[in-house]
Amino acid sequence: MDPTLADRERLMITTLSTIKRQDIVIAKEYDSTSDKPKKIVKRVIGLPGDTITYHNDVLTVNGKVVKEPYLADYQAQFKKDKLQSTYQYDAFFQRLARQSTAFTTSATGEANFTVKVPEGQYYLMGDDRIVSQDSRRVGAFPKKDIIGEAKVRFWPLNRIGGV
């Protein structure tokens, strides 16, 4: 979830809130190699029944443009140098960014794509779109796999506050 959240940060979550678009949630993700799910942190992009469209990094939900201000820093860096300085620690990430035609692409690399979110499911994406493993690759998440909404970061102390 870079740049919004960093590895090893600690979050307080609530299981009582209604899930809304752009909330940050913790969900269970299952993979084919284990019966045990891993917990992931992603942003809600689509609610049940939504039609999600991306056209050159502009998000449209049900025909209305939705701003994503939390992506501004990485989108600016993508335009500047395709995130090469940001990803200098990882050659694989640098290669993915160099090959990307937009900051947000489909699982097959298309800058323009549309997804219909199935009823009872949520479309989740990470904020670091180029390298995020999310609904674009693993599909939508059923409500039963949403653990809760992240509300407050309490560690590290110098970053304490709402998310």
Automatic annotation (TrEMBL):
GO MF term (any one): serine-type endopeptidase activity
Domain Peptidase S26: 1-155
Known EC number: 3.4.21.89
InterPro entries the record matches: LexA/Signal_pep-like_sf (IPR036286), Pept_S26A_signal_pept_1 (IPR000223), Pept_S26A_signal_pept_1_Lys-AS (IPR019757), Peptidase_S26 (IPR019533)
A Pfam family per the record: Peptidase_S26
Membrane-topology annotation of the record: Single-pass type II membrane protein
Any one GO cellular component localisation term in the record: plasma membrane
Compartment(s): Cell membrane; Membrane
Major localisation: membrane
Key words of the record: Hydrolase, Protease
Source organism, top-level taxon: Bacteria
PROSITE patterns: SPASE_I_2
GO terms of biological process kind: signal peptide processing
Membrane-spanning parts: none
Catalysis: reaction(s): Cleavage of hydrophobic, N-terminal signal or leader sequences from secreted and periplasmic proteins
CDD domains linked: S26_SPase_I (cd06530)
Family: Belongs to the peptidase S26 family.
Protein name according to UniProt: Signal peptidase I
Organism of provenance: Pseudolactococcus plantarum
